[in-house]
Structure formats: C-alpha cells, structure tokens
Amino acid sequence: MQEAIDEQNRKEREIINKINQEKNNREAENNRNLQERKRLENEIIEKYRKINEERLDLENQSREGKINSSNQGKIKQLEKELDLKKQILEIHTRQSELKRNLAQQELFAYIEQRR
Asked: What is the rounded distance in angstroms from the CA atom of residue 68 to the CA atom of residue 72?
C-alpha cells in the first residue's frame, strides 16, 4: 500500500517538474518571439518611413519640375521590401503559435502518459 502511495507521489512530482520546466521553456520562447516580433515591426516601421521620405522627395522634385524616375523605382523597391517584411512577420507569428500549440499538446500527452 505504501509503495503505491510512494509511486503515485513520485509520478505527481515528475508531472509537476515537467509542468514547471515547460512553463520556463514557454516563457523563454515567448521572450524570444516577442523580441523577434519587435525587431520585425521596427523594420516595417523603418520601411514605411523610407517610403514616405521618397514620396515626399518625389513630390518636391515634381513641384520643381525635376521628375526623377529613380525615385519611383526606389519607392517600388521599398514597397516590395515592406511586403516581404510583412510576410516574414506573419510567418513568424504563425510559427510561434504552432510551436506553442505543439508544446502544449506534448505536455498534455506527457501528463496523460504518466497517470
């Protein structure tokens, strides 16, 4: 009888340890994901800023009668880069969610296995 109680207590401690480890892992992963998301968002903001600068420069040149096709090309290139950054952010967000869901499923499976 005591052996069964000891075994049950051991299993409960294992589960608690696993839950705590998973919590720590999840917090670390969330911090990494948050930093990466901020980095990507800052890159997107910077691209918007550059596009606005180029558009303003193009407007100024247009007013002065100095239309320059290189500015239009720069704007198009910056818009392509912006679209790419947005896609990367979207992919990163989806991957983060998938990793989080997978880790949660693995934890639940581990707990069920240990019961």
From this structure: 7
- For residue range 33-75, list pLDDT tens digits in order: 999 999 999 999 999 999 999 999 888 888 887 777 777 888 8
User: Are residues 10 and 115 in contact, defined by beta-carbon separation less than 8 angstroms?
Assistant: no
Instruction: Identify the CA nearest to 75 among candidates 57, 60, 88.
Output: 57
Q: What number of other Cβ atoms are within 10 A of residue 4's Cβ?
A: 8
Dmax (CA) of the chain: 94
Residue labelled with tokens 């075994």: 7
Cα 58 from Cα 84, distance rounded (Å): 23
0.85 surpassed by pTM: no
Q: Which residue has the tokens 């392509």?
A: 80
Q: Identify which of 110, 75, 93 has the alpha carbon closest to the alpha carbon of residue 37.
A: 93
